[in-house]
């Protein structure tokens, strides 16, 4: 197995790349002016990283999948992720990069909003692909951050730096929304497969054997990260993936309640509930009737 390099500090990454550390908690640089990372290694990141790639970027792997690289591809790494590097011998780094430690943004609005940027948990094949105009916007923001780091640190530095990073991430939210729209055919295919998986789950004995299905369960079978899958479903339908699962669950429950040979408790267990009272509460919340009331009403 390839060795894992633990990178807890920005300076450690800078050292690997042959970059001067201007600030202990953030680094912004042009990759073309740096050394290539050690080949055939895995790196455990203790900080956030944003890469804007250009041209042939070699092979970078997250989990079991290679990044879907193209000119103008953006990749996002969060603390705790492990990235695997496998490049050809004649590989030369390209593109731009921002690294920032969680300590940099403590107490800022960015720290409060970081959980909203779900693309930091997307899988490798869910990278962001930018148009030329979008690339220019991102490059301009990189330049602003580079300029700020070249200045003497003062009381305004932290807010200006964090605000620019937040602005960059907000643009990425917009660009991902555009990507969801322009990949409508792919998204429709995912929706169709999701509906079929839902149908199969409740028609088989999966629910009774493994319990209520989670968003992660369906995302895994569609070879997507839970965050990307959830965002895609929400963008396409206006409902969350969890709402879709619950709606399907209630519709199946309504059909089975008419089978008077089965008790409500038996139906609850078949649907994956450990406790019938949990089923009763969910059913009433969604229909305004208890299962028994619904059966008698119909």
UniProtKB/TrEMBL annotation:
PROSITE patterns: HTH_ARAC_FAMILY_2. The keyword Transcription regulation applies. Transmembrane segments: none annotated. PANTHER family: ARAC-FAMILY TRANSCRIPTIONAL REGULATOR (PTHR43280), TRANSCRIPTIONAL REGULATORY PROTEIN (PTHR43280:SF32). This is Helix-turn-helix domain-containing protein. Residues 196-297 form the HTH araC/xylS-type domain. Gene3D superfamilies: Homeodomain-like. It comes from Flavobacterium azizsancarii. It comes from the Bacteria. InterPro entries: Homeodomain-like_sf, HTH-like, HTH_AraC, Tscrpt_reg_AraC-type_HTH. Keywords: DNA-binding, Transcription, Transcription regulation.
